[in-house]
Fold these 4 entries.
Entry 1:
Amino acid sequence: MKDEEFVLKVYGKHNLTFKAKHYDSVYLKKVAEQLISIKDTDFTHYEIHFNSEANEEMTEPNTLIHPTLD
């Protein structure tokens, strides 16, 4: 079993973030380019990087939401 994975993050408008992990960075690039190429998409750009702790990165929040109660 492989221990090393790549993480894809596709970013977009309104703090939209799509995350995926895979052993093949070429596959992740294809996924990202398809998401960005969808007509009227809110996705704008992406990054792919190696992460030996990909599971932890997948579960950490990108934006912390602090609700206010009135």
Entry 2:
Amino acid sequence: MTDESEAGGRFDWVHWPTMLKGIALGLGVGLVLAVVLGDLYFGVLLGLVNGVAFGVGRSRSRA
């Protein structure tokens, strides 16, 4: 077993403020897309996926 302080953590490379901003922005764009398309679930899901992808990509480039 590895000590948590020794190994760091599984998600230490994630910059959480950037991830939360990306998710919030993605959901905002997803809601606009949902209104345009008339499909709430698809718009929100697509916005959430784009927000998470932005947050992960931006976090990886910062690490």
Entry 3:
Amino acid sequence: MDKDYLFYQGYIREAQRRRNEALGQLFVAGWQRTKRIVARLANAVLDLLIGSSPQPH
């Protein structure tokens, strides 16, 4: 095999590894933000439901 070929294959593999690592980090960050948004929405809905129900005197 050509030395240049092996050299560039190493660069390509490293770039792919870094890309996959970055995508994984973006996925985790997005998932955590999504969970926070869902929790906020659930709390808002509960507040609306509890606030709109008649309160006993």
Entry 4:
Amino acid sequence: MTALHWPLALLASALALSSVLLLTRALPRVSVPGVIGELLTFALVGALLLTGAPLACLLLVLLAGLAGTALGLYRFLNR
């Protein structure tokens, strides 16, 4: 079953990174594509949790979101 988990985890990681960067790019305003990306990431993580994905898959998504948040805040604070 992990053959299904890894592509979902990679897609969720890409969405987590890009949607956080989209959200922090337009920070006083709300970025609609960023919010949609976050909702899709949440849905994919939910699917991974419900299908019993290994912890490494979930950790990959968490680290991608963390990297996106760090990069976005770095860009925002250095404007």
